[in-house]
Amino acid sequence: MNLERRADAPGALHAASQAQPNIALVKYWGKRDTVLNLPAVGSISITLDSLWTRTEVRFVPGQKHDQVSLNGRSDEAESRRITACLDLLRQRAGVDYGAEVSSQNNFPTAAGLASSASGFAALVHAGAQALGLTLSLAEQSVLARRCSGSAARSIFGGYVEWAHGKLADGTDSVASPLLDAQAWPLRVAVAITSKAAKQVGSSEGMRRTAQTSPYQSAWVDTQEADLDTARAAILARDFDALAQISEYSCLKMHALAMAAQPGLLYWNGATVECMHRVRALRQQGVPVFFTVDAGPQLKAVCAPAAIEQVKDALRDIPGVLDVLDTGLGEGARAMPAGALQT
């Protein structure tokens, strides 16, 4: 990586950033290298707008350990992940300063809404600024991937593709933008069916699936064709084609996980009812399709004119606790100091 220390970096040692979660349309599931977080397959996603993570990082010379606050609370497991991520930045900057990290989400954490993606994208962006490191967006994407795989995509906005890559060191497994959010401004209704953290995290779920699911090889072998189809649909703004490939990839990923031993069932009853409702709407001519990540929340992607109808239909389903409304958003970006208090 081409990294330089900026001696004149404004706000050196202290910075704040915001990043948004992303939702994969062609799914990422499985790793070919767990240490470097290299994916078994490529993926394509959309970055959301009104859901966000805001993170402030302050490096303190002479401080030995990191102090981490997530949504105002301490989490030992997540603190270890954050320290490991900061270590990558400290190594490149040639410092050993401990850090004070404060991070907030405005949406449920660890519940299938890609909070790790937005969280670690914001952490890498803010940490690099604080240490005065000059990193391209591609370099930030590689570092974010090391911390949480799908965070590679949240560095960018709009429609994003994360390359599977072939190199053993992972330097070619990087995300890149496909299309700006404004170029095809779809909307997303997020049906919240549980606010609890999922019982099996994505990393453990991927490991179990790769080791025990009989469908793993088929999943890997068919992914390139799915990526080609989705990429062409996005560039052509072909909603029907994107709807078909997105639901196909979603159901294929969950079938893969369900066939693990023991099987991984991330849905609840309301999730399934939401799927049926979205398909019924599409049969009635409403431009909408669903996707579901490793969690119980359903995301209904639709044309802007259909968003109110889609939200009303999802709210009517028993077990849906809330319906969030978001457009497509930007990638990771700097925030003013004190952003977490606003």
* Tally of helical segments: 9
Gyration radius, in Å: 19 Å
- Summarize the biggest pleated sheet: 5 strands, mixed
Shape: globular
Q: Which percent bin holds the helix content?
A: 25-40%
Domain Diphosphomevalonate decarboxylase-like N-terminal: 19-175
InterPro entries: GHMP_kinase_C_sf, Mev_decarb, Mev_diP_decarb, MVD-like_N, Mvd1_C, Ribosomal_Su5_D2-typ_SF, Ribsml_uS5_D2-typ_fold_subgr
Protein name: diphosphomevalonate decarboxylase
Domain Mvd1 C-terminal: 189-312
Provide a short characterization of the protein structure:
It holds the Pfam family MDD_C. By secondary structure, the chain is an alpha+beta fold.
Write up this protein.
The chain has 342 residues and is an alpha+beta fold. The protein has 2 domains: 12-183, 2-Layer Sandwich (Ribosomal Protein S5, domain 2); 187-326, Alpha-Beta Plaits (2-Layer Sandwich), CATH 3.30.70. Helix content is 36%, strand content 23%. It contains 9 helices and 17 strands. It has helices at residues 76-93, 115-130, 137-147, 151-154, 202-212, 216-235, 239-258, 269-283, 307-315; strands at 4-5, 14-19, 22-26, 31-33, 38-39, 43-47, 53-60, 67-70, 98-105, 133-134, 159-162, 175-179, 187-192, 288-292, 298-302, 322-326, 333-335. The strands form 5 sheets. The protein has a 5-stranded mixed sheet. Strands 3-6-11-12 form a 4-stranded antiparallel sheet. α2 crosses α3. The longest helix is centred in the middle third of the chain and has 20 residues, at 216-235. Residues 1-11 have low confidence and may be disordered.
